[in-house]
Write a structure and sequence with these properties.
With about 170 residues, the protein is mostly helical. The chain is about 80% helix and about 0% strand. The protein has three helices and no strands. The chain starts with 18 loop residues before the first helix and ends with a helix.
Length: about 170
């Protein structure tokens, strides 16, 4: 194929478009301050080597999409890990609450047992005091009875001695 070195743009390329498409292209050309022909030429030359990507993404975009997909996947894993961690924390908190309640119940039962023990000790001390008083009374009565018995024994012995002495006196 022969190469032409003529740089003059004197060849015409054309395309068919709807009136709306043509009006949109004219507005864009005016926006950038160029003619419609110059605008079409610039667009055509800019994208002539990317025709295979029309309607598709170019490799750079595909690469970015793959990175986005990987990041979304990683984000999903992290969200799942976070949900699992939240669930585990909730389980641990529930366990702590349960243990705390059991601790409080045991503490309450211990306080009740200690109060009951204190009541029993007070009752025991009262009983012991009553028993001490009763014991003292019994000991006092016992001492009185001993004294009375000793007196009776003494009188009895004295009577026996008198009787024996009286008998001896009578025999003499």
């Amino acid at each position: 194929m022969a190469k032409f070195t003529d740089n003059n743009r004197n060849m015409t390329l054309s395309t068919k478009a709807t009136i709306n498409d043509k009006m949109e292209l004219i507005r864009l050309a005016e926006k950038y301050g160029v003619t419609l022909s110059e605008f079409n030429y610039t667009i055509l030359m800019s994208f002539k080597n990317q025709y295979e990507y029309i309607g598709k993404d170019n490799p750079e975009i595909d690469k970015l999409k793959e990175e986005i997909r990987k990041l979304k996947s990683k984000n999903t894993r992290l969200e799942t890990n976070l949900e699992n961690a939240d669930y585990r924390v909730q389980m641990e908190m529930d366990s702590v609450v349960k243990i705390r309640n059991e601790y409080d119940d045991c503490k309450y039962q211990l306080k009740e047992a200690l109060a009951e023990k204190a009541d029993l000790l007070n009752k025991l001390e009262k009983i012991q005091s009553d028993l001490s008083k009763a014991n003292e009374k019994i000991e006092s009565q016992s001492a009185t009875i001993k004294d009375e018995n000793l007196q009776k024994v003494g009188i009895g012995l004295f009577s026996v001695a008198l009787t024996a002495f009286g008998i001896n006196l009578a025999r003499k």
